[in-house]
Write a structure and sequence with these properties.
Elements lengths: L2 E6 L6 E6 L2 E6 L6 H13 L4 E7 L5 H18 L3 E4 L1 H9 L5 E8 L2 E8 L2 E2 L4 E3 L8 E3 L8 E2 L2 H17 L21 H6 L1
Parallel strand pairs: 1-4, 4-5, 6-10, 10-11
Antiparallel strand pairs: 1-2, 2-3, 6-7, 7-8, 7-9
Helix pairs in contact: 1-2, 3-4
Amino acid sequence: MSVILCIDTASDRFAVGTEREGRVEVVTAAEERTHTTGLLAAIERLLGGEKPAAILVVSGPGSYAGLRVGISTAQGLALATGAPLFGVRTFEAVALAVGSDRDVTAIHPAGRGEFGVQEWKHGNPAGEIRLVAALEPGPQLAGEGAGALGGTEVGPEERCRALLASLAPRVRAGELEPGAEPFYLREPAVTLSRRLRVSG
């Protein structure tokens, strides 16, 4: 029996899941920002000793550190097991979670009070990904934080479930192209230490 693994670390809480012959199982971290300490253990528990036949990983936008942990973990597992790796953008996962029959504005927190936003129509992107400082509340919103704005809340568990349910059959049919490049909305907020700035 082949198992397909999904890793989503785009949010403060990660989710990992597996799909086995149509049966999807997903676990979400109990606490925030435990990607480095809890992700591998959660994957090991879900796989139960099996090698994944393929790996899906959410490639962004999302938490810079979280995405780095998730993608590098997925790359390492793919290298160790020979499983093909497929990266999926956060907004595609949101659109899959709400269904192709809905036109939505997919959103994801981008820090500094901003959101990443992309329009989706009939399950397809209908605009570029952009940063916005304010969102118009309403039922058209879907994604993390959308519930508080009158839209559909879609977190890491829902994204992971949607990816496994929608994409696992396509992976098995060979319809997807492998590859996983991270997508960031802005450059990381990393600076030199004061000591290095003074000595430089």
